[in-house]
Amino acid sequence: MKQFGGPAAFIDRNDINTDEIIPAKYLTEITKKALKPHLLEDLRLEGRQFDPHGPEMQNAKVLVTRANFGCGSSREHAVWALEVNDINVVIGESFARIFRQNMFNCGILAVELNKADLDRLFALKGQIRVAVDLEGEKLTAESQDATVECFFILNPFDKELIGAGGWLALADANY
After folding, report:
1. Mind giving me the DSSP string for 67-97?
2. Do 42 and 23 form a contact (C-beta atoms < 8 A)?
3. CB of 35 closer than 8 Å to CB of 22
4. How far apart (Å, rounded) are the C-alpha atoms in residues 23 and 28?
5. What pLDDT, in 10s, does the model give residues 129-139?
6. What is the rounded CA–CA span in Å between residue 80 and residue 114?
């Protein structure tokens, strides 16, 4: 089974849309690999500089964000840009419905947490590493100074889908 987790990057904003995840001008690319350098290049955060090519993003396997991640256009390219950058988990309060399903279809885990749990994650300082126990529906985020554990819920089909590595892997194994 695929392992989920790794170093985390934190993006403290609601309503990050698919144009910010991958700008529309790259939708003509014919390979996922061509999307890789453009992940989050148009993202703007109030009050702070965001560098999509900085060390936090370069090492990230996990994104931690706020509510309504992936809103806007339902383009699958936005999920592909995450996938080709080795992001295997996105943690947020909520996700746009189609975007969330596209994540699961591509083998990327979407973890929904309540605001209080997200606030506990955002309170961690320094380099944060997240480990996910898919079967136990638990994630553990560790910094040098603290550990935060949170529980999440997946429906049985999403758990099977993500455990298989996405829709194509599930279909290959079962049909």
Report:
1. SSBTBS---THHHHHHHHTT--EEEES-B-H
2. yes
3. yes
4. 11
5. 999 999 999 99
6. 26
